[in-house]
């Protein structure tokens, strides 16, 4: 029988890197997918995932497990890390735009790269709509809809009632549907 998150986290707090590695293996895919949904970029999602687990290790004594699960707390750490990475990326790209462009860099795009570009374009469209939501609704969508955290667990980690969280998700879904519908109508 595999150890519970609570058992692993207790060992992690005591400095057991092996226990933390088990938690990483258990949740890395969920954190990575959450990071992609927050950033719209597979490569940035990799960076966010690495940073989120580094922050989780450093702040392991501060973790709030929900019903014995580390995932909701890890997803909140991931969201905070993604915001920090996004600010850093904006500053980096602003710097790159001031540099002269390279010439003669022809590349052969593979199907995988094309698929990633398509994924990222679709995700940028969705993220643009999500960014127009109030922060509370963005957090609710990210945890419950994108990452599949239960309403009860997400409410606990956000410190609100489950009813309040359900209301946020419902309002966010309605706003997103209107925004995305308006955006596709404008593109025609």
Descriptive account of the structure:
It is a single chain. This protein has 188 residues and is mainly α. It is 76% helix and 0% strand. The protein contains eight helices and no strands. Helix 2 packs antiparallel against helix 3, helix 5 packs across helix 8 and helix 6 crosses helix 8. The longest helix is centred in the middle third of the chain and has 27 residues. The chain starts with a helix and ends with a helix.
Number of strands: 0
Rg value: 19 Å
Helix content: over 70%
Q: Report the uncertain regions.
A: none
Structural class: mainly alpha
What gross morphology would you assign?
globular
Taken in chain order, the helices and strands follow as HHHHHHHH
């Amino acid at each position: 029988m595999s150890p519970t998150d609570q058992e692993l986290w207790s060992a992690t707090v005591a400095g057991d890197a092996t226990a933390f590695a088990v938690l990483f293996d258990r949740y890395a895919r969920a954190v990575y997918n959450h990071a992609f949904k927050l950033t719209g970029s597979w490569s940035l999602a990799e960076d966010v995932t690495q940073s989120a687990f580094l922050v989780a290790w450093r702040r392991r004594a501060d973790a709030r497990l929900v019903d014995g699960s580390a995932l909701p707390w890890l997803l909140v750490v991931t969201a905070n890390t993604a915001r920090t990475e996004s600010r850093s990326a904006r500053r980096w790209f602003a710097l790159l735009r001031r540099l002269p462009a390279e010439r003669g860099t022809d590349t052969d795009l593979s199907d995988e790269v094309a698929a990633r570009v398509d994924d990222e374009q679709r995700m940028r469209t969705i993220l643009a709509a999500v960014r127009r939501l109030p922060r509370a609704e963005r957090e609710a969508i990210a945890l419950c809809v994108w990452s599949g955290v239960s309403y009860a667990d997400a409410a606990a980690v956000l410190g609100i009632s489950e009813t309040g969280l359900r209301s946020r998700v419902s309002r966010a879904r309605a706003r997103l549907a209107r925004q995305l519908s308006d955006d596709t109508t404008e593109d025609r």
